[in-house]
What does this fold into?
Amino acid sequence: MTEIEQKRRPGKILGVLALLSVAAGLYFALIKAPPDAYQGEVQRIMYIHIPSILTAYLSFFIVFVGSCLYLWKRERRDDILAYAAAEIGVLFTALTIVEGSIWGKPTWGVWWTWDARLTLTALLLMIFVGYLMLRSLIEDPERAAVSGAVLGIIGFLDIPLIHMSVYWWRTLHQPPSILRPDKAPWDNVHPSMLIALAINFIAFLLLYFYLLSLRIRVGETEERIRTKTLEGAA
Amino acid sequence: MGPWGFVWLAYGIVWAAIVLYLVGLKSRMRKAHARLSQLKSKEGTDKHAT
It folds into this structure.
């Protein structure tokens, strides 16, 4: 087995596990779970909406950690991790907004409203789209990494605001059903729905780590290309 | 659009976007590996020539 094949093997196992859990998640979300008593069938969108935003939060937390480590130790691998996590975080945040909008139309009667939580989530997306643009516009990799790290840390600070916005302001968006301080999730959500949500969350996590491992490998290969090009030019 | 229409629309967009991103990532990986191999072979040829 070659070195590249050995590196790819854990990624392939993760990919297969992600695929199986996504299939299980779809079965539980679309077939096994009952429709909601008030929202009906559209509540099934929540089985991808909640895992999407939690995965995006995790991704931006990884950006935060990678950025802090890069500013502290100046190691390229921390920057590669932060950049990779930011890109995937943008994908999951954009998907969260799209899913929420599709759910909002039949439930609230509108595709979009300038509610505090929705606006702060849109701001989070804008900050990290800005992060990706900044990274692609600065040619010097060291300067791009430092600027990205600073913006990555500032951008992450929006997440506590998003989470607390439903308590601090009068919002159309309902308070959390799962991550709430006064009730355990099983006291608030029926077990059949909670199981569907948990399986989909596991599926999104496995998928996320699979995508992250691939994106990190792309970043590492691009870094090796850059080093080789510089060596060739010297 | 009925309730299931909204559900299929949401699930369709999400999984299409994730699959497209995955395909794009694999394509970037292939291109990067091809470029790296090209640089390595060029490096080998240059060393051999000197």
The radius of gyration of chain A is 20 Å. The helical segments of chain A are 3-32, 46-73, 76-108, 116-137, 141-156, 158-168, 185-188, 191-233. Residues 97 and 161 of chain A are 17 Å apart (CA to CA).
